[in-house]
Design a protein that fits this description.
This protein is α/β, with parallel strands linked by helices. The protein is built from 11 helices and 9 strands. Helix 1 packs across helix 2, helix 4 runs antiparallel to helix 5 and helix 10 runs antiparallel to helix 11. It binds xanthosine-5'-monophosphate.
Length: about 300
Amino acid sequence: MNYKKFIGEKIKEIREKVGKGKAISVLSGGVDSATVTVLGHKAFGENLKVVFIDNGLMREREPENVVQTFKKLGIKVEIINAKEKFFKALKGKIDPEEKRKVIADVFYKDIFKKILKKNRIKFLLQGTILTDIEETIAGIKRQHNILEQIGIDPQKEYGYRIIEPLKELRKDGVRKVAKLLGLPEEIQQRIPFPGPALAARVIGEVTPEKIALVRKATSIVEKELKNSGAFQYFPVLMEDKATGIRGGKREFGNIIIIRCVQSKDARIATPTKLPWKILERIRKKITDEIPEVTRVCYDITPKPPATIEYI
Ligand code: XMP
């Protein structure tokens, strides 16, 4: 594909679709939404509203980092605090697909709907990619950003239209576009992060406490595996517990599973053969720095039969 041409065509296409209306772009910190935002900014300049929804499920310092990164690109980002809304909606939900649906509903039916209505914006730019669409259609999992492809008409249901300029690309293609658009290297190469955010890495009910725990573990894993060259790496907090020993006493503690995979575009993945030394270091940091965890395991399952994420 000629990515330079792709960029020019997409800018023209979104300008035509939006016409005299207004558009908004919602950042998640990942490469897809960042790329769409820069495309939108090229199309509309200051007239593109850019927001970051702080849903309480993001990684450490994510809102601040996003604002800073985009400030350097000359793009102003507004942070919207919606933590309570998400935790309230997730309370008591244990089924993975239900958790995904609840998160999508808070975004689309509540937050986006209100912001767009208040600002008289009719178009939402979104970083959906081909893999998201394919997995949802195949019934593997409901990617949180898929609507039209599963029969939801956002205009009819929520009162706004969705534009998805990256929907023909996979992750590797998006990274190429991001590079051509001049996005910083750390965003271009950032490992994928799911729409339901850290809620996808907590099995069972999502609570602020469990998110705080998995957030700490995520910082450790991301730091330790930064130079691993892997496609994606993250910890997951299990719902089950296991017996351990702390301070010479029995403790029924939490279990963290480390996932680290090689992949080109997330359709298939193989577990990375990490050196034992690195695994040991991660284990030590997690059990030293997160006392609620008594057990750390490494996942050796490829996709398929597993998926990359746990929900
Ligand atoms: P799975 O777990 O299906 O994930 O093997 C494939 C890739 O997609 C990411 N992922 C998501 N991305 N919205 C997204 O934009 C989502 O709801 C979502 N769920 C999973 C996942 O991290 C992996 O890279």
